[in-house]
Design a protein that fits this description.
heterodimer; A: four-stranded mixed β-sheet; 13 helices; globular; B: about 400 residues; eight-stranded mixed β-sheet; 9 helices; 18 strands; disordered C terminus
Chain lengths: ~500, ~400
Amino acid sequence: MTPSPSLAARLLAQGRVALARSFRLHRPRGAFCHRGWCQQCKVKLTDGRVVLACQSTESHAALHRWDALRIVGRMAEGAVPWAWERHVFADGALQRTYLETLRRLSGALPLADNVVNTPRAATQRYDTDVLIVGAGVAGRAAAEALQARSVACLVVDPLPASGNSDASRAASDPKQYLCVGLYEQPRRALCVGSRDNAIVHFQRLVVATGAYDRIPTVPGNDVPGIIGLRGFEILARDAALPPAVRIGFFGHRLEAQRALAAASQAGVSLRYIAGPADLPDFGGSVFPNSPLLRVLGRSRVRGIELERVGALDCDLLIVGISQPSYELQAQNGCTIELRGSPPIVRATSSGSAPWIAVGEAAGDYVEDGTPARVREIVNAWLSDEPIASNHAAAPLGTAEAHDDAFVCLCEDVRVRDIRTAIAEGYRDVELVKRHTGAGTGPCQGKLCHGALLACAHSAGLDVRIPTPRPLVRPVRVAALAGSCQFPSNAPQ
Amino acid sequence: MSDYDVAIVGGGLWGLALAWHLAQGRKRVVVLEQRHTGSGASSRNVGRIRSIQLTPELTRLAVAAQAKHARLARELGRNTLFWRAGYIWVLYGDDEVERFRALLAMLKQAGSEARLLGLQQTLEVLPVLSGGEQPSGAMYGPRDAIVHHDAVVYAYRAACERSGVTIREHCTVSGIEVTGGRASGVQTTGGVVTADLVINASGGWSSHVSALAGVTSPCVPYRREAFVTESTRPVMSAAVTFYRPIEGWFNQTLRGEIVAGSITDEEAPGVDHSASPESLERTAALLVRKAPRLGELRVVRQWAGVYDMTPDRKPLVGASTLPGFFQFCGCNGRGFSLGPLLAELLAAEILTGRRDPLLDGTEPQRFDHATEAHVAIGDYYAGYGSKAAA
């Protein structure tokens, strides 16, 4: 299958990285993950529909201009909603005007006028022993290993089967659904497809949902043009990188190797890589052990500033800090811990349904070794043997999170807001989340939980993930409508 | 001498509001909360403050409760985002319209400003319904409101801390101390707390706490579910409720999200905070049917909360059969609107010994001689015994 580049990729090839503006501060934002996770590239199409540019194959969007709105955003930072409690009005015209102003200051996009909701086919029911979420290399390897031991399993993945080998495709036969939530009593998973939904009853769970990239908590970490390693791999695969673009890299060693491989595949080169001590050598400059101080640029990346090194130019900054996905494990009731620097959220092995994570979701990043390692893990799991942990990732040596850095991009929450909330007495992660809004936006904490928990941890709070709730990824109301039947409206 | 004058079990809206009013009267108060403040229904509701009720008693109470919410920001010194967005009960079928027409005189007499709208007026108030199932009319409370639940809870929490209330979080109540036939304190995971008066303000857990005190309770907790979408530009103000084909509701928050939920009568009783895919599909289908434009929005998360239901849909406010043990529960899904007012009234009763007439009919002991207290959650109208509506 020839991949067609996404709208975000097309626009990037034309040199456009700022695609959207943020909800509260009207800051320019662009696609970070290019995989539908980060929710920062929401654009309005010419027909009025609102889509994620990285998930759409349309060719045109009605993009924002933001210069004037940034001033509104700067004013809003002191008023909405962090400081709203200090503005006390009597119930009357002033309060009404204040609230109406708050409503209208939102950077959200308007609703389309001519919405057509396609009816959904009846919700499918499946019953299986092991539900495998994710049909990448690790998910398929897990399916094979389970089938080799005659364990019934069902694989779901939102992407069409890519099929590296016909044998593996036949063995795993993934259903094309996005698993959005796990539920208890009875134990089941809700999976959303393009035409219908599926409710899967399962006994055990294999999480093979991969990893995503985290944004370092430095000032300027929301500037368009910062791209996660995995997004960069997609852009490289789709040949969507402008030829003369200057690319910098900041992140861990294995991620740097992957970025170098992707760049050479796409015929572009990295100008420099920065990160921890053990960075790979290549044709360009290497800056080991140089903490990242800030990302430079206002409406697009202009460069980075490293401690002891100073400013380095770039047009795109690739960030390779891997965060294994943990939403399904968290919904399944696992506890979490923080590991590494910057801190990464790790699901620990407790939970309601028996589960394992494989591949990148388990923190294993060695592509070639993945199938063998997955077989090892699955076999150990089936035999009830302990599973050796393979968590590597040396500390990046970033400094303490900077006050100006964003923790939560969806809700425009800075490190400072988190620290202020904790100092004001919101001494519980759940209260901090509710008071600041961090983690309550469309990405549901994927970009921010690590940074949020790191702030909480350094302030002496218990490290707990805010209540994990379905959905894993936003889904249109009309797509969730399923095939519900209701009694008639006749007089009762 | 006891550690405290009053120990309140439950650090939600009801418990915190009562604690603050009692502290204003110079009582030494402790609030015991098993998780964090507001972790139950107080943070799981959507803060709709309506005056349209089906009985005169509830309407009078709701009108007074709304006035309390309107002055809350001034009392607590913090904006609670009290927004007079309006409340609209959308009716499908002429018989439903007639049922509400019969209620108009009662509502007016009880102080509600609610009025009946025809189809055209309904669509003017709620253009978002156009293209969806055509309503027959609507009951509209133009001055009804939506507040931000967390803003209210945190305003009370901050006010409590300023007034010297002790708030103990992550402290689970495991028993009620009884000395000489009188409640004398609370056993908790953090030790025994003695108090002259123990108040059960534990929301969905109220029947459990009553049982710890050996007091029979008519309250039954039921799960209610909701979801919230991503934000969009303002498309509607008034909070919508409908009862056909089944009971459901939706409204837009100040931040531009749409929150929505629906209710079936298949729900089993019990405290259950887990969401279900069935509720998600059901509510989504209702939303698309009523307001098709909203079908384009994406759902971000879903959650569940608990309604503490009583057989007559009225709360329990006041002394129980056990001396020194007061009930302050039975929210019936109106906890957020009624809480601040009821807290003020109960605190006044505790401080002065005089009971406000608005509390008539909320005496906890009214069920003590009932043969069987039955709570049916699905049939909304039937729960009121109101033939005008049913």
